[in-house]
């Protein structure tokens, strides 16, 4: 299938009620209510603070895929893509979509961590990272997911996440718009038959996506962690794929990335539906570059500042801090690094050319300082997102 094929589906069925970065239960409950006449929608448990956790079951086929989103409450792009895909299945007479539903049973948890989603935090209400609770199962949300896994007995798991803007692809200067991983299932990160099946599916997605966002796809380090959910499910011999929605140029609301994630998930479902995934075609996965923490949101390059009563030429790195305010995510610019940042890339670069840097009456420049406006030789630069 071509990109145009997926673009037409996306444009036709995109869920317009979900947009920007802040997605929580109040946003999806009306959508789930509408789905009850089409899919099997169930309340499957509660969060620490008593928020309901739901599942959506689509299709009747023998191949079973379990996927969950917003395990980390502030990673919402995959949730938007899930509802876009649900709309395709709910409304489209497309033969391919009908075939997926005949061949597969798809079980989706759209928001696993509703407390974290409401507060826009990575952690749950007990300040626990649910993706580090696979062994202890200390949290109600973790128990819900493990219960689903044990009862549903999936053939594949899709662990849906979002990554920060700091990640680049390998040694390139390209941002990692999407990233994947076939997690390890043992301390030696052995390439097992289970991992190969996940690698094969990732290879198929990568081949399609490279035609649109070339060299903007990475994989994560596969060091084994028994506390991670993906590693645990892989160790239980269920091919598990980590999906990470990342940054696309100037797309801080992740609406462009949303489409690529929609395409990745839907194309993987089509591949699983139409093929017996043996793992024999895993090798292209091994050529996907690994992610590096190689980006900052803004770098002011080669500006002159006064440090310790001396004039120095430095780079100043700014990173946005995502902050929930009145139901909207604001991107607050904060000084992350000061020094030689020539080894890092900036999503935005301000070339100071040794012009003098000042804050005009504000605090002394220091790491951690919130800085919305700077001056280079008295020329004003706004660091806010527009």
TrEMBL record:
One of its GO terms (biological process) is proteolysis. Keywords: Carboxypeptidase, Hydrolase, Protease. One of its GO terms (molecular function) is metallocarboxypeptidase activity. SUPFAM superfamilies: Zn-dependent exopeptidases. The active site is at 312 (proton donor/acceptor). The keyword Hydrolase applies. Residues 15-335 form the Peptidase M14 domain. This is Zinc carboxypeptidase. It comes from Xanthomarina spongicola.
